[in-house]
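Support request from a user on the community tier.

User writes: "When I paste my structure tokens into the form, the page sometimes reloads and wipes my input. The last time it worked, I copied everything first. Here is what I submitted, just in case something in the input itself triggers the reload:"
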């Protein structure tokens, strides 16, 4: 067929996880295509998405190693401390890392992450972006993956990667079953300015209706708010005037940040959990939310996706050095083994945490406080939590240690 472009890896989805994977593969000399339907200028527009992401220190090390970190300098706010409490009751869990541990993570506005990825991708040698474009036909067989794009281009790859987010059509088309449930909760997201500096602290305050998180957004006096409310209350909460909404938020905060003001638009999204039964198929691998989506309670969703990226890059690059085709079943089996369990353990742990804090009544509250106090007093447990927050649990791919494969 005339004019068919051939790639080692074709990625469907150029969001935070898909584009990071494309850049990381390209940096290791793997010829990669990324296909995404969104207009590039739209997803980096100022008002597009007010969300922020907590990037663990291991994820940050990978972004540095593949050249994205250079475009993020000075954009984030380090998390030096995590404060977890049951309502405004005493007996909070206070995570402060030791001086030699380094920060637990850095908060970045998603827009800054997208801009940094776009700038890095523009200079990547082995990366071709088909955007805005979409695959109208995908044929996967034992020999290759062939895609016909809406623009009329036909491309071929040895491996297809789905990075399409939680409603991945490619996962559905492959017949991969997912375990899923909706939480009866909605997350309201915005940013606030406050009089008292946050001192680079992330606050996670649990209420029966759902957790209220304050995440340090810019050094000083701006924090992102992720406020979880029962879904049936969400429409009324979102209809509140700015003043009434701030008064309700201040009740949850308890006034410890002084006067608060809105610093961004308010948006909301429903919360759900899903986990794919497997993350590979013939010449197919799933990464990020296509494979697993968890409650955003601990900001680990994107880091989980970055762990997928680091593992898949290592498996493919090492396999290709041995002369194997990137779609080789034994490479995909290695990726499945490496990522399947870690993603499941993190997902289940986060889901358990959400359920533990969502039980109303006095007794569960006492149990939670006793549990928080126990973790606070037990260095091993506390260390395990901190390692999880930093993304340092499990066998670490080299990219997450900041090294090229």
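"...and here is what came back when it finally went through:"
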């Amino acid at each position: 067929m005339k004019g068919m472009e051939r790639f080692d890896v074709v990625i469907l989805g150029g969001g935070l996880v898909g584009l990071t994977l494309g850049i990381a593969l390209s940096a290791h000399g793997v010829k990669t295509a990324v296909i995404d339907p969104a207009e590039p200028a739209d997803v980096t527009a100022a008002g597009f998405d007010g969300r922020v992401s907590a990037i663990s220190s291991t994820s940050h090390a990978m972004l540095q190693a593949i050249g994205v970190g250079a475009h993020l300098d000075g954009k984030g706010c380090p998390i030096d401390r995590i404060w977890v409490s049951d309502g405004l009751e005493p007996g909070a869990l206070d995570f402060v890392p030791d001086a030699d541990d380094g920060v637990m993570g850095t908060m970045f506005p998603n827009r800054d992450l997208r801009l940094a990825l776009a700038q890095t991708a523009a200079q990547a040698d082995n990366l071709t972006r088909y955007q805005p474009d979409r695959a109208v036909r995908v044929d996967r067989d034992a020999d290759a993956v062939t895609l016909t794009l809406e623009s009329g281009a036909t491309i071929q790859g040895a491996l297809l990667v789905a990075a399409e987010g939680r409603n991945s059509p490619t996962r559905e088309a492959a017949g991969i079953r997912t375990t899923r449930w909706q939480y009866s909760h909605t997350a309201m997201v915005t940013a606030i300015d406050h009089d008292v500096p946050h001192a680079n602290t992330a606050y996670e305050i649990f209420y029966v209706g759902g957790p209220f998180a304050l995440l340090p957004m810019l050094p000083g006096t701006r924090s992102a708010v992720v406020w979880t409310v029962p879904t049936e209350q969400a429409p009324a909460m979102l209809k509140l005037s700015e003043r009434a909404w701030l008064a309700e938020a201040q009740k949850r905060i308890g006034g410890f940040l002084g006067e608060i003001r809105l610093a961004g638009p308010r948006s909301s999204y429903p919360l759900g959990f899903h986990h794919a039964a497997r993350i590979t198929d013939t010449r197919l691998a799933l990464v990020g939310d296509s494979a697993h989506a968890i409650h955003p309670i601990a900001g680990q969703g994107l880091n989980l996706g970055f762990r997928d990226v680091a593992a898949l890059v290592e498996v493919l690059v090492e396999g290709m050095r041995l002369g194997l085709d990137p779609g080789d079943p034994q490479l995909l089996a290695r990726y499945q083994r490496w990522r399947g369990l870690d993603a499941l353990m993190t997902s289940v742990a986060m889901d358990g945490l959400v359920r533990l804090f969502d039980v109303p009544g006095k007794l569960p509250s006492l149990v939670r406080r006793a549990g928080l106090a126990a973790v606070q007093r037990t260095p091993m447990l506390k260390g395990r939590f901190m390692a999880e927050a930093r993304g340092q649990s499990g066998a670490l791919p080299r990219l997450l240690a900041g090294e090229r494969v």
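Agent notes: The reload is a front-end session timeout and is unrelated to the input. The two ends are 35 Å apart (CA to CA). The domain at 5-76+109-179+272-358+391-401 is CATH 3.50.50.60 (FAD/NAD(P)-binding domain). Escalated to web team.
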